[in-house]
Amino acid sequence: MILPRDSLRNEILPRLIFALLLFLFCSLGNSEEPNLNAPALLLAHVASDDIDPALYLISEKLDGVRAYWDGKTLRFRSGNSVNAPAWFLAQLPARALDGELWLGRGRFEELSGIVRTEQPDAVAWRQIKFMIFELPDAPGTFSQRAQHIRELVRRTHWPQLQAVEHFTLADRAGLQRKLKQVVRDGGEGLMLHRADALYVTGRSDVLLKLKPLLDTEAKVIGHVPGKGKFNGMLGSLEMEMPDGKRFRIGTGLSNTARKNPPAIGSIVTYQYRGLTKNGLPRFASFLRVRREF
Fold first, then answer.
1. CB 75 within 8 A of CB 37
2. Which of the ends of the chain has fewer CB neighbours closer than 10 A, N or C?
3. This prediction's pTM
4. What rounded mean pLDDT belongs to the chain?
5. Among the options 61, 129, 211, 219, which is catalytic?
């Protein structure tokens, strides 16, 4: 059947235009590609209650900024380059290192401000330590790699390059005592790395984190207006977990964050106390926006 010209113009052509616009919109929405410079890193799972600490080398969980040195370039977890002073980079050995840029307990926001600056502040950078906890692609067990890290740091003989201190504990009671001590002194928690583990990347049970409060990340997908004392500001964040589950965060937000809330699409770190039977976080509380340095 041949359609009249008016039918072609009034029915089919608008549909074609709509389909073209939809295609362009979807293409633009998916145009962002992953950073090909992002290093493959080992990421931690949460420690279970029945863990045997005797199998692990244990260290304090540092409140720093993850950094990866490939022997030539210092990068954030995102793959973006760290704008560190040339003299800082010149001190690093010509081999891959994985660790955290660190100022000290409770100084994450100050650290974040320093390392995100395009023009590095030489005075501020002299306070920063590069705390090494892994030798990427090195052979042997983690116990052996930890020993090699200590030897490497000793040979480098530069106070700003440090090996993360590891220790052992015999039982869960000792682990809980140590956790309470670290938190009481201002630390975040503990990291447990299987002493016999070969080098791996990705999220793995060979590395565990132990904290009084759990934390993880989710994406901001909406802003819920505030009521009462928060009228005219943000009331809560509509969040989406990696598995697609949705929930809201309404606590832990400062007035500054409520007036200028995290952008839709940004990634937020939040704390929580376990999961409900539906897999949603209990008592979720805003911690900070993840910085894509």
1. yes
2. N
3. 0.70
4. 88
5. 61
